Fold this protein.
Amino acid sequence: MPEIKNQITLGNAIQIGVMLVALALGWAALDWRSQSSAATVSDHEARLRSLERDVLRGLTQIDERLSRIEGTRK
């Protein structure tokens, strides 16, 4: 049975380095995606606020027209 030596070789060091680089790149990619998603959500919220204003303006105009129509029928 071969004997296993407890020592760090150049191959072990390279493998550890590659794993650390892969972890750093994965972390950076996830961080970039989360920032991109946050910006997208912020943009969607702004669009929703604009649509809400437009809908409220339209409902106000409909209410005014309805009031005028009801006023002329009496």
About this structure: The mean pLDDT is 91.
